[in-house]
Amino acid sequence: MGRKRLITDSYPVVKRREDPAGHSKGELAPELGEELQPPEEDEVELQLLRQFDLAWQYGPCTGITRLQRWCRAKQLGLEPPPEVWQVLKTHPGDPPFQCSLWHLYPL
């Protein structure tokens, strides 16, 4: 009887090619004359704060604000990044900046 047939034997092999510009079909190309915009300053700062939230060497961050966590890490001698302190001080009372990633999750 020969070898056992596989389902992939029924379909031809198709290899996708990139166009001459180097883009694959799934990517969107920027419009002509449209330049890529650098991320907004707030978005860069929020990314820095998210990285601080994910850095476990400064202790847990659930149930407290980022500023409280930064101060606790400083008191414990863990040397938190001073850039985080600057961002937190420039946005007092602003929940996206002051609250950690997990502030909406119940304890």
TrEMBL record:
InterPro entries documented for this protein: DNA_pol_delta_4 (IPR007218)
Positions of region (Disordered): 1-40
Matches recorded under Pfam families: DNA_pol_delta_4
Domain of life: Eukaryota
One Gene Ontology cellular component annotation held by this UniProt entry: delta DNA polymerase complex
Compositionally biased intervals (Basic and acidic residues): 15-28
GO biological process: DNA synthesis involved in DNA repair; DNA-templated DNA replication
GO molecular function annotations of the record: DNA-directed DNA polymerase activity
Name of the protein: DNA polymerase delta subunit 4 isoform 1
Species this chain originates from: Callithrix jacchus (White-tufted-ear marmoset)
Taxon lineage: Eukaryota, Metazoa, Chordata, Craniata, Vertebrata
Gene (UniProt): POLD4
